[in-house]
Design goal:
The structure is a homodimer. Chain A is an alpha/beta fold. Chain A has one domain (2-152, 195-298): Metallo-beta-lactamase, Chain A (4-Layer Sandwich). Helix content of chain A is 25%, strand content 29%. In chain A, the strands form three sheets. In chain A, strands 6-5-4-3-2-1-16 form a seven-stranded mixed sheet. A seven-stranded mixed sheet of chain A has the order 7-8-9-12-13-14-15. Chain A has a two-stranded antiparallel ribbon with strand order 10-11. In chain A, helix 4 (94-101) links the parallel strand 5 (86-91) and strand 6. Chain A is globular, with a radius of gyration of 21 Å. The model of chain A has no long low-confidence stretch (mean pLDDT 96). Chains A and B meet through helix 1, helix 2, helix 3 and helix 4 of A and helix 1, helix 2, helix 3 and helix 4 of B.
């Protein structure tokens, strides 16, 4: 299971009743935070989730509304007595930017490691999840993130027996271990059925709609995507500022055949995003006009 | 008249229902902000006051809870189309600290000027108000601020006539101008009665109680002072972390003979500061256990 919380839904500036866009996911005791604007630590406290298990923070880009809350969050994690290292992932220069912000957050009781994204797309693993980071199209370098959790096939007793594998190895093989004994090599595929559908979560904000998003979001169980403007006549503004309308996000969701779309990153000029729900659902019915704190447990099928 | 709003009352970290301690005062079209922690821009929006006329930001010190909201506030002021220069006042290194934080707030449409405080006490003027900044006692360099507005005496017709000053000069002299004509010098004191009581406002946070506070706060109309802990048994903790209990703040207020004390900068461990109101009022009756957004208009007497 992956727990996902969209901590905030605002773009540009935090508002009295709308935190800035950021997402936390929790899996297997680890937490991963994507973006951390001013107030994200408060949104997290409202949610009731601890900052201590945050093992990774991924930044889409370095506009203040996505990173200004970092010094406070680091201190908050320190106050929660975190001592394990923290990995911070972000576009080129992430170490320089974070260290510059740390002028007011020097004393923290854990190490910070950096992973700088440089390519158009990069794949890596954190906390047992596969991550794909890919360049999107904003007015500064910006990345989208897709997190996936693979799911192995069921244990197949007949297959294991047919391969002549002793029962004492079954459990280790089922858990994914490769075993070498007496010059023989046993691999998990010898005891497992076809791999099953896993979980996939995509987070994209501050971008025009581009093919990379469709490519990586394809088949996502949840697609969290920016929708800066609900008003159809703001398309030109969306293009100018390298953002999207609700309808552009919905078209991406449709093309990528995701299960569900959560809109976020609303313009401060948009007090009631829900007013455009009907129109956007005509493009992609399973669209949610998210509110701060929206949470879901992504579960394996069956 | 000076309008004063205590935008937040929290110390250490912002909480869902408590913004970090900061104060804004408005006088004669200018706004002065003292401290700007994470979320201060939201507190200001809740108050309904504009960020555009902020001509001066004074920092007591560089702990994150007093300055982490600066990048967002600067961008906010830029979005409000401010173009006039902004003066930022703070302890030694203020320019370096602010420029480091500005790694995420480079593009703002106004100039930032710095005034670095270096002495134990400094006096200067901003926006028509006298300011005294003085070192207090925290675990890093920290300053208290006292703002005062002098009030000239009433115009005294008899005195002006007795001094043989022509009526055509009266208005200019009343407004404070010194006039030289035909080898004669006329000064405002020649037409004005004794100067009257002005207004005085003192803001002190993140410090142990020290004499400098009493000295500068003396006779203040309003004394906004930290009270990190309400529980009497937290005195040792207050000493250790260089903060004050409510009772120490009240003793300062009493000794400095201020008119009113507003407590602020409550510890996150203190959910209900009002529980200690009775005990603290026994020391200084005119104490207010402030809540976020508390506002007053300081008015001249009569």
């Amino acid at each position: 299971m992956i727990e996902v919380c969209l901590l905030g839904t605002g773009g540009m500036m935090p508002l009295p009743k709308r935190w800035l866009t950021s997402m936390m996911l929790r899996y297997n005791g680890s937490s991963i935070l994507v973006d951390c604007g001013e107030g994200t630590q408060i949104a997290l406290k409202e949610k009731g989730w601890s900052p201590k298990p945050i093992d990774v923070i991924c930044f889409t880009h370095f506009h203040a509304d996505h990173i200004s809350g970092l010094p406070g969050m680091l201190l908050n994690m320190g106050n929660a007595e975190r001592t394990e290292p923290l990995l911070i992932v972000g576009p080129r220069g992430v170490g320089r930017v974070v260290e510059s912000l740390r002028v007011i957050a020097r004393d923290i009781p854990f190490e910070i490691k950096y992973k700088e994204l440089t390519g158009n797309e990069e794949a890596f693993e954190v906390c047992g999840l596969k991550v794909e980071a890919y360049k999107v199209c904003h007015n500064i370098t910006c990345y989208g993130y897709t997190f996936s959790l693979d799911r192995a096939g069921k244990f197949d007793t007949e297959k294991a027996k047919a391969a002549g594998i002793e029962v004492k190895y079954w459990n280790r093989l089922q858990k994914g271990e490769t075993i070498e004994e007496d010059g023989k090599v046993f691999t998990p595929d010898m005891v497992l059925g076809e791999s099953r559908k896993g979980l996939k979560l995509t987070y994209c904000t501050d971008t025009r709609p581009v093919n990379a998003i469709v490519k990586h979001a394809r088949g996502s169980d949840l697609f969290i995507c920016e929708g800066m403007y609900g008003e159809p006549d703001k398309l030109a503004k969306a293009k100018e500022h390298k953002h999207m309308t609700f309808y552009e996000a919905a078209e991406l969701a449709k093309e990528a055949e995701v299960k569900e779309l959560w809109l976020t990153h609303y313009s401060p000029s948009l007090p009631n995003p829900k007013a455009y729900a009907k129109a956007v659902k005509e493009i992609f019915p399973n669209t949610v006009i998210s509110k701060d704190g929206r949470t879901v447990d992504l579960l394996f099928e069956e």
